[in-house]
Write a structure and sequence with these properties.
By secondary structure, the protein is α+β, with helices and mostly antiparallel strands. Helix content is 32%, strand content 24%. It has twelve helices and 15 strands. The strands form three sheets. It has a six-stranded antiparallel sheet with strand order 14-13-10-11-12-15. Strands 1-4-3-2-5 form a five-stranded mixed sheet. Strands 6-9-7-8 form a four-stranded antiparallel sheet, with helices on both faces. A hairpin with a 6-residue loop joins β11 and β12. α10 runs antiparallel to α12. It is globular. It starts with 6 loop residues before the first strand and ends with a helix. The relative contact order is 0.13.
Length: 375
């Protein structure tokens, strides 16, 4: 265990357990990380969280071990931090993925290292766009920054235009720009560096493919539409599951083309002509993965089987009818003007309790206490 002013570890005891471990890396806290980690811990895996955020005791409920780093540059010390740990997979947000892998390969098994190396190759959204185009997939045209001026972007891509970081997580830093003046302001305030790109805006339905795939078996996948989210590009609050074999096949082909195994999420926009334009590929757990449990799709179990190398007997894509699904916890935390905080907490409790047998009481306790403290 690394003990210094660069890294502070919160850990129950000092004994290193030989169990396989999954590493989670974040800048703040992702709900899906806590859900997945708690479920994995219940299934017998160690869960290790490396974060830039000061850890709390309630957050530690879902993890066997938590390491706080002072900055992302401290990820270079992962080899020492993880010494003796049997890390079999990594769930890292894209903004930290490159530094995570650079500090990680000496600690991993060869097959784990190779799989994560393939994921690292697609962290850069510009690289992904070009690789998908060579594979025959539809992707919106992009113009890498920096460019000479806003008019050059408009001439190439039109308005509105999407401005986003080449490396980012969960829509962070992405914006849809509607006017030339707004575009000029963004470019004059740091948005015209080589860390960004401009992407053609495609009108249509926001659809997604998600699943657990690879390892020679067909794990469960789902296709769905995001109905409500935080802002224009934030986390989803409500999704609509749809039966879309064509989109499911596209998602599987993308994973095969990019060499991704394990958890994957693909965002597309379906235009008026029925073409699916791929604008984001995430080789990690996604925000709504746990929500599908309420309609019988067990992504946690499929991921555990994949980690253990167990063939997935059920290759069913998932639910076969349209179903509206509220995403935990975001959908249950929105406080109406007529509601008290107690009412919000009670609604969250009713929503989270069905997950008790699946992800375990630790996650339920974390969510209820965390929300109470936030309020």
């Amino acid at each position: 265990m690394l003990e210094s002013r660069r890294a502070r570890t919160l850990q129950r005891g000092t004994r290193r357990e030989p169990r396989p471990a999954v590493l989670f890396v974040d800048e703040d806290g992702w709900d899906c990380h806590f859900q997945l980690a708690s479920g994995l811990r219940r299934a017998g895996f160690r869960t290790i969280r490396v974060t830039m955020k000061p850890p709390s005791r309630v957050a530690a409920l879902c993890f066997n071990r938590t390491v706080q780093l002072g900055s992302d540059s401290d990820l270079a010390s992962l080899e020492s931090i993880l010494d003796g740990e049997n890390v079999v997979d990594v769930q890292a947000i894209e903004s930290l993925a490159l530094r995570t892998y650079q500090g990680f390969p000496a600690t991993s098994r060869p097959e784990t290292s190779a799989n994560w190396a393939r994921r690292i190759d697609i962290v850069d959204k510009l690289v992904v766009s070009r690789r998908l185009q060579t594979g025959g997939f539809f992707t919106p045209d992009v113009v890498p920054a920096p460019v000479a001026g806003a008019r050059e972007v408009v001439e190439a891509l039109g308005l509105p235009v999407v401005h986003k970081p080449r490396v980012a997580s969960g829509g962070q830093g992405a914006s849809i720009i509607d006017t030339l003046g707004e575009l000029q302001r963004v470019m004059s305030t740091g948005g015209n560096s080589d860390a960004y790109l401009f992407e053609r805006h495609v009108d249509g339905r926001s659809l997604q493919f998600s699943g657990v795939i690879g390892g020679g078996h067909g794990g469960p996948v789902v296709t769905y539409e995001t109905l409500r989210r935080e802002g224009r590009t934030g986390p989803a609050y409500e999704v609509l599951s749809i039966d879309d074999p064509e989109l499911a096949e596209t998602g599987r082909k993308i994973a095969a083309h990019l060499g991704i195994e394990g958890m994957i999420n693909v965002d597309v926009i379906r235009d008026a002509d029925g073409r699916d334009w791929v604008h984001d590929v995430n080789p990690r757990v996604w925000g709504s993965f746990a929500a599908f449990r309420v309609v019988g799709v067990d992504f946690l179990g499929a991921y555990v089987d994949w980690l253990r190398g167990v063939p997935e007997a059920n290759s069913r894509r998932g639910i076969q009818e349209e179903t509206r699904i509220d995403v935990l916890p975001g959908a249950f935390l929105r406080q109406e003007p007529s509601e008290s905080r107690v009412q919000v907490q009670a609604r969250l409790a009713r929503a989270v309790l069905p997950y008790l047998k699946w992800v375990g009481p630790r996650y339920v306790a974390y969510e209820l206490v965390h929300n109470l403290k936030q309020k």
